[in-house]
Amino acid sequence: MSNLKVLSLFAILVASIGAIPAFAQSADITVATDKGSYSDGEVVMVSGQVNEMLSIPVSLRVIAPNGNIVTIEQIDIGSDNTFSVEITAGGNLWKAAGTYTIEASYGLTAENTSTATTTFEFGGSSGGKPSTTIGVDGTDFLLSYTITGGKVLSITPDVAANSLIIAIEATNDGQLTITLPRALIDALLPDGGDDSFFVLVDGEERDFDETKTDTDRTLTIVFEEGAEEIEIIGTFVVPEFGTIAVMILAVAIISIIAVSARSRLNVLPKY
User: Fold this and answer.
1) 101 CB neighbour count, 10 Å cutoff
2) Given the DSSP bridges, would you call strands 37-38 and 114-122 parallel, antiparallel or unpaired?
3) What is the sign of the dihedral through the CA atoms of 159, 161, 162 and 166?
4) Three-class SS state of 94
């Protein structure tokens, strides 16, 4: 009889434990890409949404057809419960062609994590370092760059400062590698030899690595999470079309004035 009571009490205890509510939170998640297929060097725009804010980032992995993980990202959730990230397809880890899988996970614990997946087709990479291009505002120049930890928003020349202003959105610590044509911006000594650029990240001087050719200079600049502006200062920068137009107009006006003055002198009577 005593054994029966013990078993009954044990059964009640187990049932009570099972009835205790679980306070671990989970949230449903969706994920998608802007296109169904990409080529080497293209940017994959990944976006998604969660149904509940848990104050933690979304964990995202890109998995190659052979099962290798080629990219890992931690993405903050916006106030509207959405998230997005840009990933450049290409590089040594992206050599395999086929179906790539994006896996987005969100949750406080492994037991309460929601996962969503989507796929895209990729033609494979040559293995070189992928680069993206962006135009310089007000000019015909198109610059090649690679960036980790953020994205480039715009590039604008500052003629007065002989510099390029690069607006970025830094979601993590990262680095920017950008190739600058000498015809766009350069840093030269009075004798024509190369001088060093002066680089500022949010107004603070920053060391950088550089490689040079006869036509280009490539800079690698490190930045911190939250950085907004990189300024590269040289001794010469090509002005925007608007500035060039003003200069041409000024020269034209001066020429007209000079010609008019000369014409008036020619028609003056001689005594």
Assistant:
1) 15
2) parallel
3) negative
4) helix
Query: Which ranges constitute the DSSP H helices of 61-102?
Result: none
Tell me the pairing of strands 82-88 and 185-186.
unpaired
Two structure tokens written together for 255:
């020429």
Q: What does the block give as tokens for 17?
A: 């434990």
Alpha helices in the chain (DSSP H): 2-19, 241-267
* pLDDT tens sequence for the chain (271 residues): 455 554 455 554 444 444 333 333 446 899 999 999 998 888 899 999 999 888 899 999 999 999 999 999 999 999 999 999 999 888 888 989 999 999 999 988 878 889 999 999 999 887 766 678 899 999 999 999 988 888 999 999 999 999 999 999 998 888 899 999 999 999 999 999 999 999 999 999 999 999 999 999 999 999 999 999 999 999 999 885 444 444 555 566 776 766 565 655 555 555 5
Give the C-alpha distances (Å, rounded to integers) separating 29 from 26, 90, 116, 228: 10, 27, 6, 29
Residue 119 neighbours by CB under 8 Å, 6+ apart: 99, 100, 101, 102
The tokens for 229 are 């502006």
- From residue 35, alpha-carbon distances to 44, 57, 153 in Å are 8, 24, 21
Angle at 83 between CA 80 and CA 86, to 5 degrees: 145
Q: Which two structure tokens, joined as six digits, stand for 141? A: 């120049």
261 to each of 23, 47, 93, 254, 267, how far by Cα in Å? 89, 65, 70, 11, 10
